[in-house]
Amino acid sequence: MSLLKYESQQREPLVDGNKTYHQVTEDIISPIEMKPSKLWYIGFYISVGLLLFGAYSVYREVTYGIGQWNLNKTIGWGWDITNFVWWVGIGHAGTLISAILLLFRQGWRTGVNRAAEAMTIFAVMCAGQFPIWHMGRVWMAFFVLPYPNSRGPLWVNFNSPLLWDVFAISTYFTVSLLFWYSGLLPDLATVRDRAKTKLRKLLYGVASFGWTGSTKHWQRHESLSLVLAGLSTPLVLSVHTIVSFDFATSVVPGWHTTIFPPYFVAGAIFSGFAMVQTLLIVVRKVMGLQDYITLGHIEAMNKVIVLTGSIVGCAYLTELFIAWYGQNPYEWYAFSQNRANLFSPYGWSYWLMMFCNVVSPQLFWSRKLRRNITVTFFMSIVVNIGMWYERFVIIVTSIYRDFLPSSWSTYYSPTIWEIGFYLGTFGLFFTCFFLFAKYFPVIALAEIKSILKTSGENYKAKMTDIEKADSEKFYVEEVEHAH
Amino acid sequence: MAGGVKKFVVGSFDDEAVLFPAVKNVRKAGYKIHDVYTPFPVHGLDHALGLRETSLHSAGFIYAITGTTTALSFMSWVFTKDWPLNIGGKPHFAIPAWIPITFELTVLFSAVGMVLTFCYLCQLSPFVKKHHFHERATDDLFVMVIECTEQTNEAELKSFLEKSGAKEINVQVAETGWWIGRYDREQVLYREEKGF
Fold it and tell me: pLDDT (tens digit, 9 = 90+) per residue, A420-462?
């Protein structure tokens, strides 16, 4: 047996079980060829229900104005921008997995990248809703685009971080979509070639763009993926950096800090991986993909969670220290009174955030807990709640006591329509995800096949024998094939 | 059809480790491989087939600098020439503030341009109809397609493929045209590649 690539026997296999190429196709494609289960329908209808409720909430907001929300003069950004930042943050894990881990040659990304990228796209779609509907006169949303208009032309302000956001989010969405879909083409072709009915053949034929699997096409495809990964890597870091500029370039105490960009990016990856865990733990169970999304994958993601969670914790403490050390009375007041004081109106949210994001992920220093699915699932929810509160703390506790103490008395809590809008984005997200899981291969088929012979359990087991039997011959063969 | 029809001998392999020596042998024997269809990117197969490197990444670079210059020149024109807006008394020509948008457009142009170029070069689009030599080429088979010319001895070629380890061999006829691909044209002949 000759080897094309060798992987250390110390590493645990990325594909469990006795798999052949055909078996991989079977395992991943057959769930989408069957009729969906009852559970799928229940989940799907709940999601659509939430989506409709969200649509009605948005309808009320558009008809009656922003007054449908509890925002006021002092607290102009509340749940809407909190939710926006939260969703954008969640959208960061997919690109991190597919781009940065590709450049770092992390084999385990192949099992989770497809679903994580899909999640990214849906999360960014949800995120985009908030600033758009928050405009109030949403029919004028196109004013943010720099097009030659009849008002001068009066251009947009290119020096404004809010406009940078428009460019960052739309570019991020477009590039993620292209990256995701170009990776999907070969897998959709697999579905097409297995299709039994004419309609399926037609639909997947259209969706797969007539992919044949020609060597030259693969060569270009590889080049495309690599360059897109190279482009997406700084892109994903730039997006949350620019989102943090919305705050950091202002002069509001609590926002006006230079630590924001790296702190936001780490937080985004942290929450994004938590969401990937939440989704994939369910997906692998429901679709029976335990052989492809193994405990090893879950452990790897938990390691990222403990790392980024600790970076975020470090940032919280740095921020607090600098607020004191900087000797700016306004800054220190925002931190010591508006946030860290448990008995101030929003003190509870600060400590909830601290607990969820800094204390709880430390559980994952233990290997046993990293590999425990129940703990991971529970923790992924805790982290997502914590990261929502982080954005809430940053936004609301910084502005509810502004420079004019006479406007301090308001305690902001959302109306049902504000909550409804948020729930609606959950509806949008899960509706999209359910459809994705039903109609698309949730695991990157071609990529799994390309690592099967180096990281598949049965192949690794065979290799150990060869290696032990004649290590010299093994080495010669290895070198021969490496060049 | 304009180009008429062509005949192909199609050999399917089930292991890439068998495919590699087979590709080498077939080319060594003087046959011209039309294309090899694989279910996943087999590393090194493009070199084994004598295909040249793709220059898609160079295209990506050109699109990227187009994005950079578009963004920078447009923003400079707007804020210094067309409508110099006074924003808090700050300079009109504010390069640092334009970095984010410049970067985003660089990435956007490059990504969109590359994907479109990729689709154009590979002739991928929603409604194209292509000739698929084997439907398991997207599942678990590595499908080698060899074009038959007048000089080709079909029976000999078939037995040759069988000896090389092909699991399934058949002869197919396809209408010629762009839909069957044309990468054989850029394939260097084996003896030219090795210099004899």
Answer: 999 999 999 999 999 999 999 999 999 888 888 888 887 777 7
Please give the domain boundaries of chain B with CATH numbers for all domains: 5-39+141-194 (3.30.70.120), 56-121 (no CATH)
* Pairwise CB contact (< 8 Å): B101 & A2: no
CA distance A136 to A464: 64
B42 vs A contacts (CB less than 8 Å): 4, 215, 218, 450
Give the domains, in start order, of chain A with CATH numbers: 21-457 (1.20.1630.10)
Of B17, B114, B179, the CB nearest to A2: B17
Phi, psi torsion values for B168, nearest 5 degrees: -145, 125
Closest CA to A268 of A293, A250, A242: A242
Residue numbers in A near B98 (CB within 8 A): 158-159
Three-state DSSP state, B9 = strand
- CA dist B38 to A141, A370, A397, B22, B50, Å? 46, 37, 57, 14, 16
Q: Which residue is closest to B74 within chain A, CA to CA?
A: A146
Question: How many other CB atoms are there within 10 angstroms of residue A465's CB atom?
Answer: 10
State the DSSP H helix or E strand holding residue B50, giving kind and residue range, or none if neither: none
pLDDT of A375-406, one tens digit each? 999 999 999 999 999 999 999 998 888 888 88
Whole-prediction pTM = 0.91
For residue B54, the chain A residues in CB contact (below 8 A) are: 216, 219-220, 223
Please name the member of A193, A216, A226 whose beta carbon is closest to the beta carbon of B183: A216
* pLDDT bracket for residue A2 (50, 70, 90): very low
DSSP character for B86?
-
CB A76 within 8 A of CB A456: no
pLDDT for A21-78, tens place per residue? 898 898 889 888 888 888 889 999 999 999 999 999 999 999 998 889 988 888 888 8
A356 Cβ contact list (under 8 Å, min separation 6): A382, A383, A385, A386, A387, A389
Evaluate the CA torsion angle A182, A111, A277, A309 in order and state its sign: negative
Residue of B27, B38, B143 for testing the chain A interface, max A β-carbons within 10 Å: B38
Q: Mind telling me how many Å the CA of B61 is from chain A's nearest CA? A: 9
Tens-digit pLDDT profile for residues A118-172 = 999 999 999 999 999 999 899 999 999 998 888 888 899 999 999 999 999 999 9
Q: Are A28 and A445 in contact (CB under 8 A)?
A: yes
Write down the ipTM of this complex: 0.90
- The residue with tokens 């693969």 is A218
Give chain B positions within 8 Å (CB) of A214.
35-37, 122, 181, 183
Cα B29–chain centre separation: 26
Chain B nearest C-alpha distance from A158 (Å): 7
